[in-house]
Amino acid sequence: MKDAIAALAARIDQAQSMVCFTGAGISTESGIPDFRSPGTGLWSRMRPIPFREFLTSPQRRRESWQRRFQGDRQMDQAEPNRGHRVIARWIREGRCDSVITQNVDGLHQASGIPVDKVVELHGNATYAHCLDCGNRVELTELEAQFAAQGDVEACGHCGGIIKTATISFGQPMPEQPMRRAQQLTATCDLFLVAGSSLSVYPAAAFPEEAGRGGARLAIINREATHLDGAADLVVHGELGDVLEAVAAQLG
Ligand code: NAD
Ligand code: ZN
User: Fold this and answer.
1) Minimum-distance ligand to the CA of 132?
2) Which of 84, 108, 122, 129 is catalytic?
3) Ligand 2 center from residue 154 Cα (angstroms)
4) 227 pLDDT tier (thresholds 50, 70, 90)
5) Angle between helical axes of 175-187 and 205-212 (0-180°, round to 10)
6) Taking 70 as the threshold, does the pLDDT of residue 38 lie above it?
7) What pLDDT does residue 37 have?
8) Is 122 among the catalytic positions?
9) DSSP code for 166
10) What is the distance between the alpha carbons of residues 178 and 184, in angstroms, rounded to a whole number?
């Protein structure tokens, strides 16, 4: 472990242009469960609602709001943790260009990273918007509607369906973040994955592409991923511990 941390610190120090790529694992220390950790992962407890079902079924929409307002409350109280803070520091210091994230919890922004340096591939669950006109709506307003009427109202501007600003399974990927992630992947020389099972596509294609494009690929995760064999460096451990130790070596 000590050697792996020294090796990762050296890779980061040598890099001209590093990109971090994060998944649910970076936020578990903040109390937000990930998807696939055995037993505790959300996946094993609740099947996600696919986009089509959300669009076509008012009942599935209500179920989705119920989950958001009753189940997924950890996200509302969560604070950035050591791992988020180390990445924020690397961005501030110019060691890392941007963070590409699959997370929807907004904790990278909360850790002080400028909004334009956080590329959200799966959107953001801390606010909602109209699927037709894009009108942003705050969750506090929707929660009050849901408590009073058992449902969320249609868009006040155009009558469209309101949804959290996340990308659900089956929903088209957001164009601009996808373009930025592609650019960052093509131009970086170190691609650092932190806390992702790398099983959700197309997001997981970015580390594959980075490796193929000649960048070094480093992975920090508690458990093995299918890309471990293709990576230049793999550190299996707790993200907070590993990132803190690497940051300490870099000074
Ligand atoms: P995932 O749950 O599939 O994988 C998380 C990985 O992180 C696992 O391999 C796990 O072993 C590892 N991990 C968990 N805690 C860790 C820790 N403290 N230290 C080191 N490793 C740790 O997550 P994913 O790859 O991001 O894909 C899941 C999808 O679920 C994403 O699309 C994401 O949008 C969504 N999601 C997001 C959040 C969030 O925003 N915080 C939470 C749950 C799910
Ligand atoms: Zn609208």
Assistant:
1) 2
2) 122
3) 8
4) very high
5) 30
6) no
7) 61
8) yes
9) E
10) 10
